[in-house]
Every structure is written in C-alpha cells, then in structure tokens.
Design a protein that fits this description.
two-stranded antiparallel sheet, 5 helices
Length: 174
C-alpha cells in the first residue's frame, strides 16, 4: 500500500506550475511564434506567482538523488529572441543584450531535475528536495530570467497588437 504524501496547496501548485512550464517548453516549437510568445508569458507568470506563494523550504541531510536528464528542447523565438536587459534596474549603465531562448533554457534546466524527482521518484524526501532546489534556484537566479523575459515578451505582444485593449487606448504603442 502506497503512503499518501501530504504537501501544502502552495507546494502542490508550484509542482503543477513547474510541470506545465516544462511540458510547454518541450512542445513550444510546434506553436506559431505569436502563440508561442503568448503561452510563454502565461507560463512564466504562473511560475513566478507559484514561487512567490511558496513558503521558505528547508531540506536537511544530503540528498541521495542523482538525476541525469539528456532531454533538451528546441527553444526559439525567431526575430523576437534578442532584447536589451538591465542587470541592475537602478543603474542605467548595466544594460546588455539578452536572449529569450537563454532565459527559458536556464529556467528549464533548473526545474527539470526537480520535476523528475517529484514525479518519478515521488518519495517525501525527493519532493522536499525538489521544492528546496526549485525555491532556492528560482529566487537566486531564474527569477531574473523570468522577469526579464516577461518584460520583453510583453513589449513584443504589445507591439504586435496582440493586447487589443491596450493598443485601442494607446494607439502610439503600435
């Protein structure tokens, strides 16, 4: 008989957001570019909200989890891939060129091993490890990629007129 693992709703929601994000990234090349951008924005926003809602995680001991994932999805945004990013938004001299494909690749790499631990290993310890790794990696690194990508995608979608209500009120944004 399998023991039922009990996690907080915010932890389960985080795992769902991670699973949805990783699944989307793995199949994103099948979508037309405008749909790819829109779905990326939705998945990144949901992922970001899930990590903001996730309580601080503790993991004691050394994890005995070694995962090797050799799946690396194709990520491309065509002519919309490159954008300007500020590493320090309070320093106008800190701008540099960034890539949406790099943003999503970095986020995916940090999430996929934890997702494998959550879904395939599935023990309480493996899931606690996944939550700990996700939370610490997201807030120390991946959140910068997510928020930068969200800003860039928002600008592209607005410029393409895919936010109809915004361009109706602000025609200069076209």
């Amino acid at each position: 008989m399998k023991t039922k693992l009990i996690f907080k709703e915010s932890e389960n929601e985080c795992a769902r957001a991670v699973r949805d994000f990783c699944s989307f990234v793995e199949e994103m090349s099948s979508f037309p570019i405008e749909e790819r951008l829109r779905k990326t924005s939705i998945n990144l926003a949901r992922l970001h909200a899930a990590f903001l809602d996730l309580p601080r995680q503790k993991f004691s001991g050394k994890p005995k989890i070694i995962i090797y994932n050799d799946v690396f999805p194709e990520i491309s945004f065509g002519k919309h891939d490159s954008y300007w990013e500020y590493f320090n938004p309070y320093d106008k001299g800190s701008s540099c060129k960034a890539l949406l494909c790099d943003d999503l690749s970095d986020i995916y790499i940090y999430l996929i091993d934890g997702l494998i631990a959550w879904d395939e290993i599935g023990t309480h310890s493996a899931r606690k490890w996944a939550l700990y790794v996700w939370k610490s990696n997201y807030h120390s690194h991946s959140s910068e990629h997510a928020t930068g990508a969200l800003r860039a995608i928002n600008a592209v979608l607005t410029r393409l007129g895919l936010y109809l209500e915004v361009t109706t009120f602000f025609p200069l944004l076209r």
